[in-house]
Amino acid sequence: MADLYDLTDRELQVARLEIERRQKSAVVAWLLWLFLGGLGGHRYYLGPVWQGILMTVTLGGLGFWALIDAFFIPRRLRAVNKAVEEAVVRDILARRGQDGRAPVASPAG
């Protein structure tokens, strides 16, 4: 699996901006859990959405599921943000071309 170390300086700048734009916020996740946890608000934000729907229908398992989720939010947040980083790197490497090498700048002339 390719990672940020496989990128050129310019690609790294683009990747960091895109990752920052796409990543989920811990503050937002916790606020959604605090105010809408019983309805699965944090699950709609962090995924999977089908679990959010189940939480909405069951009112967060009558509150138990929402309470248990408090222990799993940090792990889910890390997983979602890591997936975002991997997707961004994959997208950038795919744009390089079929051989996976960085494009070579042609001399001006």
Automatic annotation (TrEMBL):
Keywords: Glycoprotein, Membrane, Signal, Transmembrane, Transmembrane helix. It comes from the Bacteria. The chain crosses the membrane at residues 26-46, 52-73. It is found in: Membrane. Pfam families: TM2 (PF05154). It is a multi-pass membrane protein. One of its GO terms (cellular component) is membrane. InterPro entries: TM2 (IPR007829), TM2D1-3-like (IPR050932). Residues 23-71 form the TM2 domain. This is Membrane protein.
